[in-house]
Design goal:
Length: 326
Amino acid sequence: AEPLLDVRNIDVAFATRHGPLLAIDDVSMSIAAGEIVGVVGESGAGKSLTGSAIIGLLDPPGYLAAGEIVFDGQRIDNLPANKMRRIRGRHISMIFQDPLTSLDPLYSVGHQLCETICTHLPLSRQQARAKAIALLDSVGVPAAAERIDHYPHQFSGGMRQRVVIALALCTEPRLIIADEPTTALDVSVQAQIITLLKTMCHERGTAVMLVTHDMGVIAEAADRVIVMYAGRVVEDGPVAEVVHNACHPYTRGLMGAIPSIGDDLERLAQIDGSMPRLSERTKACAFHPRCPRAMDICRQSQPPLVQLSDRKVACFLFTGTTGEAQ
Ligand code: SF4
Ligand code: MG
């Protein structure tokens, strides 16, 4: 079947005085309808940038330098701004780390929900309000019929993120891009929010791109996981296989100690060394300075992302130095 979202060989570059710097280098990924796909990697790996490229919100000097993005059978990377805005409001929703990015402090949450619903769905004010109350109730906001008239600051951080999930779902989108949706929350509520997001989306058949650096979140919520490193996809496969039997040495490092949700979020950084900076990237495997298995070839060329039986991997240990799978 056609994937719902198909990102094809995209490059994202930053214009600099010294010419373009490639931040995303030939990234392809797809998400099926109803699938929850975790995108994981260290900060700077290009996860959020990929999300921004998909929704057409790259901040200058960043720009899409190559590739295509196809959503629901339609190419969306070259749409006029007004058409893209409509897709963003209606069919692709976003959830950010800080709930206050999505909520306007000057309006009650009910006002914001009803505005969004009425802008995109053919409902009366009254119907929109009923839908908003039902949604708030289903995301676990107690006394939703009263609290709908409260303002964002009257909710706790966890409750606010529930409201944001309701807001993301209220137009019945096909895809939600959630970027670090629990990072700003108390450890005690992170698991609840992830479980809620997963349940709500599975029930509705909404696909989710879940951007996070937290392997615990991925293991809990995702159907499939895509691992990014230094602007490239290095592994992509079903979550159970990748978590329990990682191929790529970087993924293995990430899995070394799978934290449960809410554990120290800096755990990924425990792989010795650090990711090369944008300006330091070369034509080698970007992981080679940190890789316990690095070979000569790894310092000379970049391993292509190759399809194995149950996943894709970009590592010469698996693709062979001649490009054949071993
Ligand atoms: Fe390590 Fe080489 Fe594989 Fe890169 S290609 S991850 S350096 S073994
Ligand atoms: Mg990010």
